[in-house]
Amino acid sequence: MIKIKRVETKRELKQFVQFYYDLYRGCDSAVPYLYADEMSTLRRDKNPSFECCEAEYFLAYKNGEIAGRVAAIINHRANERWGCRQVRFGWFDFIDDPEVSTALLKAVEDWGKAKSMTEIAGPLGFIDTDREGMLIDGFDQLSTMYVNYNYPYYPQHMEQKGGFIKDNDYVECKVKVPEVVPVKFAKITDMVRNRYGLRVHKFTRKELVSDGWGREVFHLLNATYKDLYGFSELSQHQIDKLVNDYIKIADLNLVTGIMDGDKMVGFGVTFPSFSRTLQRTRDGRFLPFGWWELLKTLKWHNTDTVDLLLIGVLPEYRGKGANALIFDDLIRQFQRYGFKWAETGPQMETNEGVLSQWQYLDTTIHRRHRCYRKKI
Asked: CA 351, CA 366: separation in Å to the nearest integer?
């Protein structure tokens, strides 16, 4: 017997978050997410996304034990942008039992129908900066804190369920950091500087936090990501939280802005990889010693990998080689820190413009995530 229970108390929300750590304990490819971030994202009083979203969380019980979890989310801003009535499912994890996964998805569908939704899609989060997609290839590759990891039986369950179809695929690349900046990049950057007057700018903490340039990064993200799958424009409250969560603690050598005069037209935000560091914490918690492990990675870069967290260029500047300026600068920083590998974030498989920027580097597509959709 499978019992579905709506999360109603703080204790149940903690159980909802804890289930992932218990399910993937001992899995060498899975990366524990930061526990505090998970709680903050799911709490209505902490996550500014609830100004445009509503959500419910469900736990599945089998024989009295928690056997799965799922979040049901309606992003009204995204639905208005894309002209649909869609309920999203996210934080979707379960034991290898089709009855459990089916019951969880049915809970999302029933809740969505009660809210007059006509389709279900996911895995998706509240907004585009949340984790998206179900891993369908690359199960043996070390994951990152920014993407979903799941066991191979997850997509097998989805394929067995009636009505669900592929809605979108993301691919992620592993890029070898070159010992020398590729000649092609050097030529393009010289041309861009001379012909268009674009330049690299390295920000100070004051510029990013106090002077508003950190906010400008996410205003630019709104402009550059607006036509991507499922995107929901970030509000000022959401931007302020992202600045606080990422920009305030970033190593500024690993953040690059591209300027046309006084106007920012492109950006690159990268972080040293926390994957192995998080595996050494107690279920993604700062205490008792997790803070020290995270600090060592953030400050002293005790990893050979860097995560390409956010990269964006205004459409009218992509043909002018602004991307090359970003990579020319960042590669030099990566070399200085001794990084050997760079991990891209999820990129739509149909986004040829983005995927083509890796052609001058030693690049391998090593993970693929899929979003599913079904009429309800």
From this structure: 17
- Predicted local distance difference test score (pLDDT) of residue 53: 98
Give 326's Cβ-side CA count (13 Å radius): 26
Percent of the chain whose pLDDT exceeds 90: 84
The amino acid sitting at 333 is Q
pTM of the model as a whole: 0.94
Please enumerate, as own/partner, the contacts of 71-80 that have beta carbons within 8 Å and a separation of 24 or more.
71/42, 72/107, 72/108, 72/111, 72/112, 73/124, 73/125, 73/126, 74/112, 74/115, 74/117, 75/49, 75/126, 75/127, 75/232, 76/52, 77/52, 77/53, 77/232, 77/233, 78/52, 78/230, 78/231, 78/232
Question: Is the distance from CB of 308 to CB of 146 less than 8 angstroms?
Answer: no
Q: Dig out the tokens for 256 from the structure.
A: 């690059």
How far is Cα 310 from Cα 343, in angstroms, rounded to an integer? 11
Q: What tokens does 301 get?
A: 């870069």
Average pLDDT over residues 176-202: 90
Nearest to 118 by CA among 160, 157, 162, 74: 74
